[in-house]
Amino acid sequence: MMIKYPNGLIYHIKKNNNKKNKKIKKNRVFNAANRGMRFENEINKTNDFYLKKNIAIITKRPTPINVVKVKYHNNSAIITQAYFEKQSTTDYNGVYRGYYLDFEAKSTKNKNSFPLKNISINQINHLKKVVQNKGIAFFLIEFYTINKVFFLDAKYVIKCFQNKKKSSISLNEIKKNGYQIERKLTPIYDYLNCKYFKNKI
Amino acid sequence: MMIKYPNGLIYHIKKNNNKKNKKIKKNRVFNAANRGMRFENEINKTNDFYLKKNIAIITKRPTPINVVKVKYHNNSAIITQAYFEKQSTTDYNGVYRGYYLDFEAKSTKNKNSFPLKNISINQINHLKKVVQNKGIAFFLIEFYTINKVFFLDAKYVIKCFQNKKKSSISLNEIKKNGYQIERKLTPIYDYLNCKYFKNKI
After folding, report:
1. DSSP H or E segment with residue A131
2. Separation CA B201–CA B186 (nearest Å)
3. Is the alpha carbon torsion for A200, B191, B88, A5 positive or negative?
4. In this predicted model, what pLDDT tens digit does every residue of B141-195 receive, in sequence order?
5. pTM for this structure?
6. Do A100 and B99 lie within an 8 Å CB cutoff?
7. CB neighbour list of residue A141: distance below 8 Å, 6 or more residues apart
8. Mutate which of A67, A80, A86, A127 to disrupt the B interface (most B C-beta within 10 Å)?
9. Rg, C-alpha atoms of chain A
10. Which of A57, A61, A85 to mutate against chain B (most B CBs within 10 Å)?
11. Do the chains contact at A56 and B6, CB–CB below 8 Å?
12. Under an 8 A CB cutoff, do A70 and B5 touch?
């Protein structure tokens, strides 16, 4: 997602500390995290549907956490100091009809373009390797403000990322090179049903 | 691995607290964790080799951690209370020549058999689904005491697990139905080079 940290913690703060909640709402970073998390949850629900219907197994990699201090109490370990680490790969991978799938879900509030700074060099390097190893690599990009979601082949994104003159991919380019994923009730974003897979698999 | 928790923490304790270290050495649970971690590290090194040589991308899923409390200090999040959670799937997955791979590495100090209680029902259910979705699912089993490692198709392990009369798989059965992976310098356990893949891919 666009800004992943602190993953899921926002809810905890919201529940327990109203003062902090107000402070957070003013902070754009946290709003971006909220937006990212909402999209992530919709992808997770889609993946739960795929799992239940035995269409595919797509799992989200847990956020890596660097554990520094642990206490032992009644034979159980309690982590007392730890930090969130950046994912060095993508958020999602899995299997669809025997094929390996690997992708990243991103959300932007921009209306006309997707800023490439939302993607890390680690993610690009990982997806390049996935392509080299014949895996299916892509992005799911949400334009939050205009309420549209697109499937975009990672090969195209890698090409744009490597073009030093390019700082973003326009919505028109995404429409031309990607596939729009319509929002439905169940599954919410049926991305495995998009034309890309019909041509490929 | 056989006992996964507390993943990687043992090293921290060893470095910083000699008293605790002595206590841990007496504890068989921690010895099992150490043995599991050593085997896990050898698999990780093998996977690093595969990644560098562009043979395959196999990643280890981070241990899921349930974050309970977080403090914010200078705009950075510090986790002050969290717990290790059980992996609901397997430890490793990835892509090899476009195919989806999913496996679990287990270590036992038994000499003649692998106890099935080392495998959780969640792992069996996950691997069943992987097989149904045409992924390649297997176990890497280390017999620590006799210094032998085997590749065993998950379909065979699932069959044994479902046989209620069976509490373990004998070494002879593993030799007959699996493939021994010889220990080498680099990569340590070249499991993608075993006969299973030569027949399959």
Report:
1. helix A121-132
2. 23
3. negative
4. 999 999 999 999 999 999 999 999 999 999 999 999 999 999 999 999 999 999 9
5. 0.82
6. yes
7. A106, A107, A108, A114, A149, A150, A152, A174, A178
8. A67
9. 18
10. A57
11. no
12. no
